[in-house]
Amino acid sequence: MAGKLIILLGPPGAGKGTQAKKISEKFKIPHVSTGDMLREAVRNGTELGLKAKAAMDSGKLVSDEIVLGIVKERIFRSDCEKGCMLDGFPRNISQAESLKNMVGNDREMVALLIDVDKDILIKRLTGRRNCLKCGAIYNVYFSPPRVEGKCDRCGGDLVQRDDDREDVVKKRLEVYEKNTLPLIEYYESEGILKKVDGSMDPDVVFEKIVQKLDLK
Ligand code: ADP
Ligand code: ADP
Ligand code: ZN
């Protein structure tokens, strides 16, 4: 049987990307982020990117059809055989059902909820900055780079995502509550839900995740 498929759940700003990068580096499992893949398609001006852009800019979900296409193409590549982490997918019950059908009994799945109180999410999201070159994630309030606007790791320029501005952030949190929150119960009833408190320091959250998922 192929390695575990880890589904990272949690509101925008919970720290899914931050943790996925740490896990990916340490345990060498691919980080499959639908948000990152969609943003890349938008930057490259592909047909798929053009279709996704309007929904992303307004904080709404991109159509299931588009997202399922990119996920299917990605998770069956050979590097995912040893396991992989899904970040930002599934985002609603219908995507979760499609994932289940796609994977069948071939892979063990686990859903990990990174739980964070709503009141700190807005600050995390509006303070988020990403490196254009290497994708590293910073926060002007919680984890600022050493030199303003520049990546500590590669010197690349740090930018704010268009959808991390306050009005779009509010919309995204609403969309999360309506569409994605029901997945917590869904995976609980599937018997594969695990939870960690995501409000602590990122390194502490990481240690908890390693324990909960028994990563080696
Ligand atoms: P998500 O992928 O869930 O939307 P990110 O990993 O991009 O979240 O994190 C959102 C923002 O919060 C980033 O600016 C990141 O630096 C910051 N952040 C992530 N985890 C923590 C944490 N445990 N404590 C404080 N800030 C955090
Ligand atoms: P965050 O975790 O910070 O909310 P993501 O990077 O996961 O943000 O997603 C950014 C945007 O990309 C979403 O607001 C949505 O428009 C689109 N998106 C990402 N993943 C999906 C998905 N599984 N289904 C539909 N839309 C998605
Ligand atoms: Zn960088």
Topology order in helix (H) and strand (E) letters: EHEHHHEHEHEEEHHEH
CATH class of the domain at 2-29 and 82-118 and 167-213: Alpha Beta
Radius of gyration: 16 Å
CATH superfamily of the domain at 2-29 and 82-118 and 167-213: P-loop containing nucleotide triphosphate hydrolases
On the 0-100 scale, what is the average pLDDT?
95
Approximate shape: globular
Structural class: alpha/beta
Low-confidence stretches: none
Bound ligands, each once: adenosine-5'-diphosphate, zinc ion
Helix content: 40-55%
CATH topology of the domain at 2-29 and 82-118 and 167-213: Rossmann fold
The number of helical runs is 9
Major sheet characteristics = 5 strands, parallel
What's the architecture of the domain at 2-29 and 82-118 and 167-213 in CATH terms?
A: 3-Layer(aba) Sandwich
Strand content: 15-25%
What's the total number of strands?
A: 8
Taking the alpha carbons of the first and last residues, their distance comes to: 17 Å
- Sheet with most strands: strand arrangement: 2-3-1-4-8
Commentary on this structure:
The protein has helices spanning 16-27, 34-43, 47-57, 64-75, 93-103, 118-126, 166-180, 182-189, 202-213; strands at residues 2-9, 31-33, 84-87, 107-115, 128-131, 137-139, 158-159, 193-197. By secondary structure, it is an alpha/beta fold. Strand 5 (128-131) and strand 6 form a beta hairpin. The protein is built from nine helices and eight strands. Helix 1 (16-27) packs across helix 9 (202-213) and helix 2 (34-43) crosses helix 3 (47-57). The strands form two sheets. Strands 2-3-1-4-8 form a five-stranded parallel β-sheet, with helices on both faces. The model has no long low-confidence stretch (mean pLDDT 95). It has a domain at 2-29 and 82-118 and 167-213: 3-Layer(aba) Sandwich (Rossmann fold), CATH 3.40.50. One adenosine-5'-diphosphate (ADP) is lined by residues 10, 12-18, 124, 127-128, 137-139, 142-143, 198, 201-202, 205.
